[in-house]
Design a protein that fits this description.
alpha+beta, seven-stranded mixed beta sheet, 10 helices, globular
Amino acid sequence: MTAPVRIPFPVVDEVSRHCLQEEEPETVHIEVHFPGPVDQMRLRKAFTEALHRHPRILMREARGPWYRRRYEWELTPEPDVEVVTFTPPGPRALQDARTRALTEAPPLSMSPPIRLEVVEALAAGSRAAGAAPDPQSAAPRHAGLRTRPAQDIHTGTAQGTVLFLTINHTALDGPACLRILATAAELYGGSDNSPAAPPTRTPQALRETPETPTTWSRPARVAPGTPDPSPGNGMLVTELPLPHRPKGTPYTVNDQLMVTTALTIAHWNREHGARPRPLRITMPVDDRPRDTTMPIGNGTRLVEVPFVPSELHHPDMSALLRRTAERTRALKSLPRPQLGHGAALLTTPWAPVAARAALTRTLRRAAAPWTSTTLLSNIGRIPYPLDFGEETGRAHAVWFSAPARMPRGLTVTTASTAGRLHLALRWSRALLSHGDGAHLRDLFEHYLHTTEVTS
């Protein structure tokens, strides 16, 4: 019998593995809405075949002695567990599925470390979340903010099918799992689900030394709101119009979202009496191809975009957008290990993993005050049609959410589908409540509109 193939944990996987916490699981949640129903047997067959088309996802953590120098992934020929499950419609079906996506991480010991939960067609007139809203979410919108109606998880109607993909983030990330879903869509519906070509943009001249604030000072934290006594993460998803961007502008929608996130947190912190400090916003950068050759795993690298308090208080929006565009383009162009040079050194197998895990956790706690303020993960326009055929249809809404462990305590994830922006706010309940999340959504909506400058 041939021994299974083993792959040492890459740097990102190992650091995540060292720092796992039961109270705040490292899950990535992907939520995909379709207008029509799915055939259970066909979907299960298509998704299982998609796993075999991308065999790097069929893996589990290999067992090993305490003195081993590496964690290793062990590739498996077949899934160890049934990956696809079906949940019948009900008054709390969507809300309960979202809760499971935040609180129940697929185990690393079973292949593959993902699950697909299918919430079947809801009756017309049912709530999108299938449950009464949190009492705090009904708080009035902040006076003086210009906002437009947004559909969040507690409003509207839902029909059709919702797919919930829950990923153990120690093993892989959202874009890799979306690639697998695109393969499953093609196998299920027979339609071409190749990725669209990325948008073409007019190259902009980059300053030799873009104006970038120093990053050595301790960044601002998201000011505490009303902590929730229950552990784990909370989440709110909402749908917004894509922000207008005049043709030929030097900045992108990603830059508008970056500025919006910075202004939202600066406003929140002022409201809560926090002393002004520089903000640093972590931004994942993904250079992988989106076709079937896409490497499956954790493939993004992280850069940090800084802002100083003075440029966020009564800003010249056009100038702020231009400066942000220069910063993000300069940061993206710099070669850098995924988590920086320190993480690469820390994961060198100079000692057993148990010893290095203890050291990693100690250093992470010591470095907590210098952790970035928040994370903005902009998936951008979903590159695949996600077309499951005539009966099921194409995806018309796709939400992602990233883990929100302390000390950041808040992550912002965006994607665009069918000409709409799909925003997920996810927070640590040790920092914020659902009412706080609703207010942050209102602030984000307001500031997103202010980035729609005309010149």
